[in-house]
Amino acid sequence: MSALSRDSAGDMASTQQMRAMERLLAAEMWESAEALGGFLCSASPRLPPDAVASAERARHLALFGDALLGKGEHRRALNAFRQALSVNRLAPKVPTGNNLSSAMGTPETPATPGISPSTPGGMTTPRSSENAAAIVAPQPPPASSSSSSRPVDEASLKFKIGRCHLALREYRAALAELETIPARARTLPVTMTLAKTYRRTGYERAAVACYKEVVRDCPFAVDAIAALAELGCSGEEIRALLPADGNDDDATGTSRDAMSVDGAATDGHREARREEPQGGSDPHGWLHHLAEAHGAARSHASDVAANHFRRLDEIFPDNPRVWCQLARVHRDAGEVREAADCYRRCARADPCVVEGMDVFASILYEHFPDAGTSVAASDDADGGALGGFGVLSHGFGFGTNGPSVELNVLVNNLLENSPARAESWSAAALYWESRGDAEKALTYAERSSDIDDQHVTAHVTKGYLSLKCKRADAAVHAFKRALQLAPTTRSYAGLVAAYLILGRVKEATATAKACARAAPNASASHALLGDVEAYCARHGGGGHGGAARGGTSAAQGHRDRARRCYEQSLKLDPSCAGVVAALADAHASSGRSEAAAELLRRHLDTHAAHDAGAQVALHCRLGGVLAQSKQLADALGHYQSALAIYPESDEARRGVSRVERLMKGQDPDAPDEEVDDEEEEEDEEVEDADADGDDGSDFMG
Asked: I need a labelling partner for 648 at 20 to 30 A (CA). Which of 58, 147, 200, 440 fits?
């Protein structure tokens, strides 16, 4: 056989092997692809003598890198892609334009095995067929050119190098690599990845610019629309990026004129809307509602956001995503029952849905226990960092509530159906905390944030559990990360609590003011400012070592400002039991016991009537106020009412004991001799058990 014939046969064999490699990648047969890719790389010369051989080796290395990426071996894949990039520069150049060609994918969907372009940060490597869409079978090569000799597109290699760095959480290195891709060569996945990386590294302006480019390129990029809203873009600003709505009313915003004063659509308007086909007569019309909804939610305009999401529900009935987003709006507005109903409807529409279910779990934990009190009934009677405040002591910390049956079922379903999702482990953390195992709960919360560093709820849960485990420094880090991703009052409140525990009053004050600027119309923002002022009144304004708790003019000034903040908070949301209790404390500490008692009684008869946890907390608080004003019989009655609702309330039991001693003329703060005797007996029993050699290992708890 002549040399020419041998060369032709070699080219044909190489082409067949390349096509086989591409088929293996498209079928996600990573092990086989890695093996074949290794053989191809070994067969090609390491020091290419010419440009054609360079192109061939670059393609072999690139395909080998794809296989490694599919297996999740990101460091090896990174090395392979870097080698491919270096060798490829010796190959003949071809115009790239906006085309990420080669065996690694089409212009719109580069084949990145194991990492979907839609995955935040590109940090997960699913092995299921869900990612098959990211692997695109290559087109047959032109007859005039061998498939193995065509050079690899440089932009494609840089994109894959960047995504490897992201998978390894080397964000700065990823950003440095992605930024070298020329603007003309940036496809939709490249721009989206750049946006997420900019956001992750704190370059919010650059992130906004990239997200806007994504929306202009593809108006249906819903996650980009949501991200723009979270980064502070208004609904109007986002709408300007979208194609004009064919419905002039919706496009100009005059559709709002067809709504009643309270924001609800009129009957005629609603009926007219129902006649539209699903998705609306204009394919882009619903996107304007989505943009407005996210923008309003970000600015805490809950009513406006809820109206737009309800409009989307009319267009797309029983859509789980719509109900999940509407639930978040209700939750942020403090409407927990409405939020819970929305999450239940979301789960009915899709029993396997995962998004938002950890938020649902937190609602079930905080507000719907089988038995227990709200954390507003704080055991911190002497006014510690988290006790006796509005937001900090209600709905944001963790108490000793028993886990509800619904929470138990929810967590089991999540772990069974979606064990690789951050939401599942975040919900499991809440379940274990409700069972009293805060350390185990914190471990699960950390696992949740490790799975998805972009998941806000995971960081919030980790932050509050860190506070529970007396790790305030770790809590500060967790809440800062949560605020970086999405500034919510819940995250602000957690960060303020951590700062106050550490005695860092200046940082706490600055954070509370930042929350007020971010959400001036949110009840929680004003309550948070009140909490800081209440803390300063109790500690003299300078941390735990402050001198003044009593009647100094400075302390009184802090109490007055706290009272005004709490009053403003209740004007915006009269239903928050924690704020009511905190305002009552502010009245009582200023000598206005009657005003405090009247406030608590009024709330018990109205907003707390259907909230057992709030009832327990307020009965205990009212008992304390009445005991302070020497109305001992009434005080005892309220403590007993709290015990009737929740017999395990330590605060109520202590209150009964104190009042009974006062009624007998005894010192309520004297040590309880009977309790001491019981403790001594328990110690003796423990010693006897140790002597018998029983280590309790048979008891699993």
From this structure: 440
**Joined tokens for residue 66:** 């794809």
Residue 565 lies inside a defined structural domain of this protein: no
CA distance 85 to 565: 60
153 with 252, same domain?
A: no
CA 182/CA 190 separation, integer angstroms = 11
From residue 365, alpha-carbon distances to 379, 427, 430 in Å are 18, 9, 7
- Farthest CA pair distance, the chain: 117
Q: Which residues pair with 259 in a beta bridge?
A: 265
Write out the two tokens for 402. Answer: 């028993």
8 Å CB contact between 472 and 449: no
Contact 105, 196 (CB under 8 A): no
How many Å apart are CA 384 and CA 392, to the nearest integer? 11
Which of 332, 353, 374 is the last residue before a domain boundary?
353
Do 176 and 299 share a domain, yes or no?
no
Which residue reads 């008992």 in tokens?
A: 623
Question: At residue 259, what are phi and psi to the nearest 5 degrees?
Answer: -100, 155
pLDDT digits (tens, 9 = 90+) for 205-250: 999 999 999 999 999 999 999 899 888 888 888 888 988 754 434 4
Overall average pLDDT of the 436-445 stretch: 92
Number of domains in the chain: 2
Q: What CATH number is given to the structural domain containing 303?
A: 1.25.40.10
Q: Looking at the structure, do residues 67 and 156 belong to the same domain, yes or no?
A: yes
628-672 confidence digits (pLDDT tens): 888 989 889 999 988 988 888 888 899 999 888 888 888 777 765
Distance between CA atoms of residues 525 and 531, nearest Å = 10
**Tokens found for residue 14:** 């190489």
Q: Where are the alpha helices (DSSP H) in 502-611?
A: 505-518, 523-539, 553-572, 577-589, 593-605
Nearest to 464 by CA among 486, 487, 482: 482
Residue 336, C-beta contacts closer than 8 angstroms, at least 6 positions apart: 330, 363, 366, 367
Question: With contact defined as beta carbons under 8 Å apart, do 93 and 173 qualify?
Answer: no
Please indicate, yes or no, whether residues 159 and 20 belong to a single structural domain of this protein: yes
**Are the C-beta atoms of 537 and 559 separated by less than 8 Å?**
yes
Q: Give the tokens for residue 285.
A: 């019309």
8 A C-beta contact, residue 91 and residue 151: yes
User: In the 8-state DSSP scheme, what is residue 360?
Assistant: H
Q: Identify the pLDDT of residue 473.
A: 95
pLDDT of residue 696: 36
Q: What angle do CA 658, 661, 666 make, to 5 degrees?
A: 125
- When computed from its CA atoms, the radius of gyration of the chain, rounded to whole angstroms, is 31
CA 611 from chain centre, in angstroms, equals: 26
Would you call 499 helix, strand, or coil by DSSP? helix
Looking at the structure, tell me whether residues 241 and 154 fall in a common domain: no
Residue 382 has pLDDT above 80, yes or no: no
Kindly state the tokens that stand for 447.
């696992």
Quote the pTM value: 0.67
Burial of 36 (0-12, 13-18, 19+ CB in 10 A): buried
Could you tell me the residue range of the domain that residue 297 belongs to?
A: 228-256+278-353
Chain-centroid distance, C-alpha 254: 34
The answer to whether residues 321 and 240 belong to one domain is yes
Same domain, yes or no, for 175 and 295? no
Ramachandran quadrant class, 54 (left: phi over 0; alpha: psi -120 to 50; beta: rest): alpha
Summarised one tens digit per residue, pLDDT across range 68-100 is: 999 999 999 999 999 999 888 776 555 444 444
Contact 634/626 with Cβ under 8 angstroms? yes
Statement to judge: residues 22 and 104 lie in one domain: yes
